[in-house]
Design goal:
20 helices; mainly alpha; 0% strand
Length: 442
């Protein structure tokens, strides 16, 4: 199929709008790092409550994944994105005015519902809209908006650091602005052609496909989608554990869990705590979050250039292997109290941003068969958020007890991840979602 007939501007536009869910995911993920020093003073958080306040987002995200799977199958991907945007906006305001610790944590949990919905629906929607030759790059846009959200939020947090004890309220409240932009943008999005076919609206699907790639692309895609959905009913979570689809599902779930247990998100969420342990001032701690956000953005852009050229598997191997080595160096640096540790933590962020961060989402969005994609994606992302909760909840407690040696645990996980990817992950670049059904089942 000729690539020249595709409406590149239109594909890019709808990918960017749906990926605004990623920006809000980045915002809620990053805002806690800058706010934690203030929240500790305001609410007297110990290591347990620090971990729980950070991790409550993930508990909400687990619920969000379940809700998103149901909404996406029943009402469409677009309505799911609209609901996520509304939840983001309401929870941002509620966290900003929270009078006590429990109210704050309750609304961070609600924010997590929006994050969970967006983390599942945005990449899935883009994967279903984008033609095969562009899909990796377009799904990686979602990760680009996630890291842009992290960087902008870190910059805003750093700017607000001297605004007094209530600075954290502004940090959270400003989330209303991107929420509103996402909601307005999502109203303009077309529905996913794969969902339209599933809902018996093939004529509407043809219209969307025609706008994406012209008449020939629409006819060819429609017949392939209809063929892959023949005889399918709405799938439940039980269906994703059937023997025929289990190999792809197991790989997706393990990759999702590994993306979190590789440990890098403790660097994002607990930058101030890690640098405080070697005597860096609060200003210096928050400045490190800005450096981390910047490196994260640069290397995510590099990943977008490489994911459809170099492929998914090589990038995943680079990520797992690189982090194993870097964590061992980080332990030695932290043990000696060296401020040079920041260079190795930045290298770890860059390695992750170029590999495991975007490519895991690309793989989760593409390896599941059409018939079970919504339920399987939902379950894999649910597992990802459960793993994130375990990671960020345990880190303050582990770091209090084990100090720098905590990073040895993450090094071992990365080594095991490298072996798993080498043995089990097949290359998916350049194949249609329908072609991948044959590849991943064997």
């Amino acid at each position: 199929m000729k690539h020249s007939s595709f409406n590149g501007a239109y594909i890019l536009g709808i990918s960017f709008i749906s990926a605004l869910g990623g920006y809000l995911f980045g915002f809620d993920f990053a805002v806690i790092a800058g706010a934690l020093p203030f929240l500790q003073q305001q609410f007297g958080l110990d290591a347990y409550w620090e971990g729980f306040a950070t991790g409550s987002l993930a508990l909400g995200a687990i619920i969000g994944c379940i809700v998103a799977g149901t909404v996406a199958d029943k009402y469409g991907r677009r309505k799911g994105l609209l609901l996520a945007a509304a939840i983001f906006g309401i929870s941002s305001l509620a966290m900003a005015v929270a009078p006590d610790r429990n109210t704050f944590i309750a609304f961070r949990f609600v924010a997590g519902i929006g994050v969970g919905m967006a983390s599942m629906l945005s990449p899935m929607y883009i994967a279903e809209i984008a033609p095969a030759h562009l899909r990796g790059r377009m799904v990686a846009i979602n990760q680009l908006t996630v890291v842009t959200g992290i960087l902008v939020t870190n910059l805003v947090n750093y700017t607000l650091r001297n605004q007094g004890a209530d600075a954290w309220r502004w940090m959270f409240g400003l989330g209303v602005i991107p929420s509103l932009l996402f909601f307005i943008g999502a109203m303009w999005l077309p529905e996913s052609p794969r969902w339209l076919v599933q809902a018996g609206r093939s004529a509407d699907a043809r219209t969307v496909l025609n706008k994406i790639g012209g008449e020939g692309f629409a006819s060819e895609s429609l017949s392939v989608i209809e063929g892959s959905l023949t005889g399918s009913q709405r799938m439940s979570y039980a269906d994703i554990f059937r023997k025929a689809v289990l190999p792809a599902v197991v790989i997706g779930i393990i990759l999702a869990i590994f993306q979190q247990f590789c440990g890098i998100n403790v660097v994002f969420n607990y930058t101030p705590r890690i640098f405080k342990s070697i005597g860096v001032s609060q200003d210096g701690q928050l400045l490190q979050t800005v450096f981390i956000g910047g490196v994260n953005l640069v290397f995510t852009i590099l990943a977008m250039l490489l994911v459809d050229r170099l492929g998914r598997k090589p990038l995943m191997l680079i990520g797992a292997g690189g982090l194993t080595i870097l964590y061992i160096i980080v332990v030695r640096m932290l043990a000696s109290g060296s401020e040079h540790v920041s260079w190795y933590l930045l290298a770890a962020i860059g390695t992750y941003a170029m590999s495991l961060a975007p490519v895991t989402w690309v793989l989760i969005a593409e390896i599941f068969p059409n018939k079970i994609r919504s339920a399987a994606t939902s379950f894999a992302v649910l597992c990802l958020w459960a793993a994130y909760f375990v990671l960020v909840f345990t880190f303050p407690i582990l770091f209090d007890r084990l100090k720098d040696s905590t990073f040895y645990i993450y090094a071992v996980v990365c080594l095991l991840g490298f072996v798993f990817i080498w043995r089990n992950v097949k290359e998916t670049k350049g194949k249609t979602l329908e072609e991948l059904e044959g590849v991943m089942m064997h």
